Amino acid sequence: MDGAECDAVARWMADHVEGFRGPLTARKFDVGQSNPTYLLKAASGAYVLRRKPPGVLLKSAHAVDREFRVQRALAGSAVPVPEMLALCEDESVIGAMFFVMEHVAGRSFLDPTLPGLTVPERAAVLDEMNRVLAAIHDVDIGAAGLSDFGPEGNYYARQLSRWTKQYRASETDTVPHMDKLIAWLEAHLPPDDGLRTLVHGDYRIDNLLFAQDGTDMRAVLDWELSTIGHPFADLAGVLMQWQLPPGAEGRGLAGVDRAALGLPTDAEFVAAYCQRRGIDEISNLGFYVAFAFFRMAAILQGVKKRALDGNASNPDKALRLGGYVPRFAELGLEAAET
């Protein structure tokens, strides 16, 4: 945000955020590729602002109002979230809808191998990740006022349709593996089993904040893709991430000696989740993981398209991430086969 936008936000916060006192400065976080996020500092303390990106956007994308709503609904629950302070739907303030939330002090881990932690600490962090995932899916959506947060019906059928449309709308090149993966998913769509819970939509370790001096989770962030849907989508998303190569780009666990590091296997993580939620077993896990790869490929294609259109939060990184679309499609097909 430039100086004029900072001043506009400060004037708006003075009217809408209790206790706010300026002046205000803003620094953009360099993580994330969707909704630009800023650390705000003022005389009254630190805040976080999250806004829609500029430019022409895909329908239903970048719904910061939905992020605001779901996190406000989860206040005081077993799911840790920042306090939501105010939502601005008046786009004339800075040219886009935005919300302001509490700044949560904590540490984030970009790498699931958790370098720098001890073996017991690694095990505790991933067990806490498992606990909170189960807590998200155990939220009473009626009591939380979220029954209408997603449509009724087969979650995977509507998600496959939605993300296929999103992918086609942002397609820049023909990716044969992606076309093949879409066809496989359409042919193997499971029947609706009636499971309907809150889902985060992008549950991975770099979207979580942990205590600065411990392993307790302080906040689950980035709820842009949240909805009412099928809980195994979140679980499969975690497993999908772990199939990627380790390091700054992949942020996965492929080829890692998990036992030596104190990290659970996929099967152990799934078993702990099932125990917490009272589930005997999960069948058809290959479909769920294949779908997770497909959806992430569609998201990355959208990131690439925004970069080419000049609307990306971090253009260079966006183009680099967009280059992974074919690989994600390949991994999706591998998951489908296994």
UniProtKB/TrEMBL annotation:
Ranges where the Aminoglycoside phosphotransferase domain occurs: 26-249
Keyword list, A-Z: Kinase, Transferase
Keyword Thylakoid set for record: no
CDD domains: ACAD10_11_N-like
Matches recorded under SUPFAM superfamilies: Protein kinase-like (PK-like)
Record-level Gene Ontology MF annotations: kinase activity
Cleavable signal peptide: none
Descriptive protein name: Aminoglycoside phosphotransferase (APT) family kinase protein
Lineage: Bacteria, Pseudomonadati, Pseudomonadota, Alphaproteobacteria, Rhodobacterales
